Amino acid sequence: MFKILKYSFYDLARSRWSYVYFLFYLLLSSVLLFLNNDLSKAIITLMNVVLILVPLIGTIFGVMYYYNSQEFTTLLLAQPIKRSNVFLGQYLGVACSLSISLILGLGIPFMLYGLLQSTAIFNFLILLVVATFLTFIFSALAYNIALSNQNKIKGFGYAILLWLFMAVIYDGIVLISLVLLQEYPLEGLSLTAMLVNPIDLARTLIILKLDISALLGYTGAVFKSFFGTSQGFFMSFLLLFVWVILPIIRIFVVSRKKDF
Amino acid sequence: MVTVNNLHKKFNQNQVLKGVKLSIEEGKTTAILGPNGSGKTTLVKIILGMVLPNQGDVIFNNENIKNSWSYRKEIDYLPQIANFPANIKVQELINMIKDLRNKPARDKELIEYFNLGNYLNESLGNLSGGYKQKVNLLLTFMFDSPFIILDEPTSGLDPISLIRLKEFIKQEQAKGKTIIVTSHVMNFVEEVASHVIFILDGKVYFDGSLNSLKEQNKNVDLEHAIANILKENNV
Amino acid sequence: MSICRYLSFSIFCFVIQFAMAETINICATGCDFQSIQVAIDSAKSGDTLFIKKGVYKEFDITIYKKSLYISGETGTVIDVENKGYGFRVEATDISLKNITIKNILMSYTKEYAAVFLFKSYDFLLENITIEGAFFGILVQKSKNGKISNNVISGEGTSEANSGNAIHLWHSEHIKIENNKVFMMRDGIYLEFGNFCEINNNLSENNMRYGLHFMFSNNNSYTANVFNKNGAGVAVMFSKQIQMTRNTFKNNWGPTSYGLLLKEINDADIKHNIFENNTIGVNADGTNRINFTENNFFNNGYAVKVLGACYTNTYTKNNFLYNTFNLSYSGSLNSNTFSENYWSNYSGYDLNKDGIGDVPYRPVKLYSYLVNKTPEAIVLLRSLFIDIVDFSEKVSPVFTPENLIDDKPLMKKVIW
């Protein structure tokens, strides 16, 4: 598996898209730092972009890589290698190379700006960790979609739909149900709703570190006891981890039964 | 060496294999023939474990291949479409497959044989179809495994390379290797194969030596013999 | 001639007084007195009492209708040992300086204080350090005093078992300056306190309010810092309060405000800084209040306007990076927003007059939704909310149509 990972990674590390992705983040964070002149503000703006873009790029890239390397995958499958290792290796290759583009692209300008001396470093690290989680989650979901759809167009369609649902539609549904059910106690419901969707979970984790005043001011005991404690913080990370593991397990199961 | 029992395979509504039963003898070259969509490639892929049958078994060297992957160490496989990651160079791909199989390889010799020396540092994305097929061939034959599966090996090759390929297959046959080949090019098959399996609509219609096929159908060449089988079965 | 006569009379009086007034020393050994109370009892009006350094275990030290000037030196400590009040004073022309008072009795029924003034006029309380206070300085029915440079702190753990650092009740014309008050219930509390000036104090880590006005009119507070209190300042049921150059910061929590205004009329709020508060200003039933040239920076809500607010003006304020700039209940009610700087204003200024050509809408649909359904806060900063806010900006349906700043500034207001 690590050999496949290694080669997928090399392959992607030389792909134009990795550089485009890297340069995009480099530019984005440099411009934000230049314009804002304030680390915390730059981190907030960055969060807005990261939460939308990372899942999108993760899904699109994952699906694209799968379809583009289909023939090569066939070649690998004829080699004496375990099936699941081929897919897992490729998946990890995609996820790792995307993550590294992201971490370097965001990290370098912040480093140069003097992040290390700043108190914002912890917030920035959380942003990076969360963004990396999202990359792993969404490229895994993309691999699932691609594995289940032989038809490229369909695969891309589902990938975009998945992103749209997770990033936008889901929140719309949550908001509408909160407004409709406002006579009932909603703390548990809204908390659960945020824990279920990895993008929301990621957003909540970052916001809790940045906009804590507004959040704590407006939410009741359940939120405070959950997010206010380190226990809730770890729980959130655990859930992000589960979000990575579940699609990977499905990659295992589906790839074992699939014909190529 | 390979025994296939009662293989059934269905893709969605499409029943591709309907109880295929055959055996590949050790040391012989067997051609699997049949019109497009008759199930040749599916059969080959089942033997390789890439497609899982709905029913039936494949016995490779007295061992059922179900849920096993290590038996593929004995197999060299030439896939039908050679498409490689675009950013990797030829040499790197060779090194990678060597690394993956972790086995002595005769790549130097084959690079010379297929005239690939000048292309080792090209990215695979920049190679023409013919050269890709050459790389494909090289990767297949590199490991000198006792069992070889060639799926449409002649596609995209220029005449000289085709001759070289045939010569090469002859060499391998001389070493006593077992070879399965699928092809549309009948005279290629006639030249390299000693045994023919004809598949139509997911069933085996003929399984025997090349000569007996010709005799049975009183034809001098394979093409007409095949045509004859098709006629007899009112296809 | 008459001036000369007046002058000589004054000198005569002064000499008389000087001749009569004495300085009485108090210390453990070798002084006039060992006990402060005994010294006070035997002193006469106009005397000066000097308490030398040392720990005096006395409580309920009472001064009744005597004008005394009491001072200590570094190391003069009165340990009340949780037995009652420190000083109980009912007198005119009195001063108390340079003393440390410790360990005041806590009670759920009586307001024990380190210094308790009742019907006292012309007083000065200066450089008094109060530790372990229940109440610090409690002033009732008094006038014309000055409370300055004191440091007052408590050890209470809840609002119920702690008192206020400086507490005025039915008192007038009192200056409260340069005090440092912390870890009490309220830092400074005025109930029926009029014409008072509260300047340059630091009030922090108090459980309830940094500064609290109840039924107190015609007061001003200037250049104070309110940090990490339950709420910075609460002004309730009061009129004519001037609030200038104060800093309200770090008041975080479910019911935390920088400045809480409830039922107040005719106030000026100018040149204040509201920073890192859950809610910068919470206005409930306020009339004719002018918010001018204040900075709202990094708050959850900069301003939250509840019902029954009329004719308030918000002019030339800077709203910088607040999660929500404004939350608004009910209709506009002749309140106006004009010429403010909003950091998230995205309009343009074609004629270069420094005023944006497109009006700014300080209320977002999302803040309106959060008002109705607080749990919707979990969606803060999500893409969906951005889309919702954007579409509301393009065609307002839910937020009050005329609630706009029609002259949003392009540049920060400098003051």
Automatic annotation (TrEMBL), chain A:
<feature type="transmembrane region" description="Helical">
    <location>
        <begin position="20"/>
        <end position="36"/>
    </location>
</feature>
<feature type="transmembrane region" description="Helical">
    <location>
        <begin position="233"/>
        <end position="253"/>
    </location>
</feature>
<keyword id="KW-0812">Transmembrane</keyword>
<keyword id="KW-0472">Membrane</keyword>
<feature type="transmembrane region" description="Helical">
    <location>
        <begin position="42"/>
        <end position="67"/>
    </location>
</feature>
<feature type="transmembrane region" description="Helical">
    <location>
        <begin position="121"/>
        <end position="143"/>
    </location>
</feature>
<feature type="transmembrane region" description="Helical">
    <location>
        <begin position="88"/>
        <end position="115"/>
    </location>
</feature>
<keyword id="KW-1133">Transmembrane helix</keyword>
<protein>
    <submittedName>
        <fullName>ABC transporter permease</fullName>
    </submittedName>
</protein>
<feature type="transmembrane region" description="Helical">
    <location>
        <begin position="155"/>
        <end position="181"/>
    </location>
</feature>
TrEMBL record, chain B:
<keyword id="KW-0067">ATP-binding</keyword>
<dbReference type="InterPro" id="IPR003593">
    <property type="entry name" value="AAA+_ATPase"/>
</dbReference>
<keyword id="KW-0547">Nucleotide-binding</keyword>
<protein>
    <submittedName>
        <fullName>ABC transporter ATP-binding protein</fullName>
    </submittedName>
</protein>
<dbReference type="InterPro" id="IPR027417">
    <property type="entry name" value="P-loop_NTPase"/>
</dbReference>
<dbReference type="GO" id="GO:0016887">
    <property type="term" value="F:ATP hydrolysis activity"/>
</dbReference>
<keyword id="KW-0813">Transport</keyword>
<dbReference type="InterPro" id="IPR003439">
    <property type="entry name" value="ABC_transporter-like_ATP-bd"/>
</dbReference>
<dbReference type="GO" id="GO:0005524">
    <property type="term" value="F:ATP binding"/>
</dbReference>
<dbReference type="InterPro" id="IPR051782">
    <property type="entry name" value="ABC_Transporter_VariousFunc"/>
</dbReference>
<feature type="domain" description="ABC transporter">
    <location>
        <begin position="2"/>
        <end position="226"/>
    </location>
</feature>
<dbReference type="Pfam" id="PF00005">
    <property type="entry name" value="ABC_tran"/>
</dbReference>
Automatic annotation (TrEMBL), chain C:
<keyword id="KW-0833">Ubl conjugation pathway</keyword>
<dbReference type="Pfam" id="PF05048">
    <property type="entry name" value="NosD"/>
</dbReference>
<dbReference type="InterPro" id="IPR026464">
    <property type="entry name" value="NosD_copper_fam"/>
</dbReference>
<keyword id="KW-0677">Repeat</keyword>
<dbReference type="InterPro" id="IPR022441">
    <property type="entry name" value="Para_beta_helix_rpt-2"/>
</dbReference>
<dbReference type="InterPro" id="IPR007742">
    <property type="entry name" value="NosD_dom"/>
</dbReference>
<feature type="domain" description="Periplasmic copper-binding protein NosD beta helix">
    <location>
        <begin position="155"/>
        <end position="347"/>
    </location>
</feature>
<protein>
    <submittedName>
        <fullName>Nitrous oxide reductase family maturation protein NosD</fullName>
    </submittedName>
</protein>
<feature type="signal peptide">
    <location>
        <begin position="1"/>
        <end position="21"/>
    </location>
</feature>
<dbReference type="InterPro" id="IPR011050">
    <property type="entry name" value="Pectin_lyase_fold/virulence"/>
</dbReference>
<dbReference type="InterPro" id="IPR012334">
    <property type="entry name" value="Pectin_lyas_fold"/>
</dbReference>
<dbReference type="InterPro" id="IPR006626">
    <property type="entry name" value="PbH1"/>
</dbReference>
<comment type="pathway">
    <text>Protein modification; protein ubiquitination.</text>
</comment>
<dbReference type="InterPro" id="IPR051550">
    <property type="entry name" value="SCF-Subunits/Alg-Epimerases"/>
</dbReference>
<keyword id="KW-0732">Signal</keyword>
